[in-house]
Amino acid sequence: MVSSGKQRTIGEKLSAAGLTVRGKDGQDYHMRPIRPSDAASLIRGYDALSDRGKRFRMFSVIPHLSEEMAADFCSPDPESEVCVVVDGRGTLKGEILGGARLADMGPGRAAEFSVSMRPEARGLGLARQALETVIDLGREAGCASVWGAIATRNEAMLNLATRIGFTLSRDPDDFSVIRAEMAL
Ligand SMILES: CC(C)(COP(=O)(O)OP(=O)(O)OC[C@H]1O[C@@H](n2cnc3c(N)ncnc32)[C@H](O)[C@@H]1OP(=O)(O)O)[C@@H](O)C(=O)NCCC(=O)NCCS
User: Fold this and answer.
1) Does the pTM of the predicted model rise above 0.85?
2) Whether residue 52 has its Cβ less than 6 Å from ligand 1
3) Which partner for 70 in 11, 31, 39, 111 could form a disulfide, CB atoms 3.0-4.6 Å apart?
């Protein structure tokens, strides 16, 4: 039987109404593209990370996100970047909990991922689902592969990458970094 309904891509669904993802706490969370009005919440979420978490995310010591950096993060270049965020609930309603980003996208390109989640929302499987969503968006954009640099001591991210199916290898130029890579 031929379906008359037109299947929408993940990108179209995200832009239209966002996606609902189920956390391990049994609650439904709303995932959507980041927008400029998220900048203040992004700064608060970054401040909520431990110093170690900030280092793992940025690979350098950046104690606070400036308004300029936050504005940049919240306005991905539509030609080459996507960023999805998960909206908070309960005491974190109105805040973004975290999300995942893909940069350097394009047909045949190796796109770079990054991911981060507020400590209060960890272990719920939301980071995994955000990362899987941007990987799907990379596939839809025709990217050849997805890669990311992970600090050797970042067990949570190494586990998450392995779980999703990334291949891990040592960075030959920097032993403090593991390269995670996945062909699409
Ligand atoms: C890495 C990070 C995003 C993981 O967030 P999270 O909310 O714990 O992730 P999830 O709940 O989606 O967990 C996904 C998987 O990671 C693994 N994991 C999570 N925390 C872990 C920990 N502390 N130790 C070991 N494994 C862990 C689990 O195996 C889990 O798999 P499962 O969902 O199949 O059970 C979060 O720790 C973070 O924001 N860290 C600071 C920023 C950072 O390091 N970013 C990565 C830079 S590339």
Assistant:
1) yes
2) no
3) 39
Question: Ligand 1 within 6 A of 150 CB?
Answer: yes
Q: Indicate the CATH number of 10-183 among 3.40.630.30, 3.20.20.450, 3.40.50.1000, 3.20.20.140.
A: 3.40.630.30
Burial of 101 (0-12, 13-18, 19+ CB in 10 A): buried
Residue 91's closest CA among 121, 117, 64, 114?
A: 121
Burial grade of 50 (CB within 10 A; 0-12, 13-18, 19 or more): exposed
Ordered by start, the domain boundaries in the chain are 10-183
Q: Output the tens digit of pLDDT for each of the chain's 184 residues.
A: 334 446 689 999 999 999 999 999 999 999 999 999 999 999 999 999 988 888 888 787 788 899 999 999 999 999 999 999 999 999 999 999 999 999 999 999 999 999 999 999 999 999 999 999 999 999 999 999 999 999 999 999 999 999 999 999 998 888 889 999 999 9
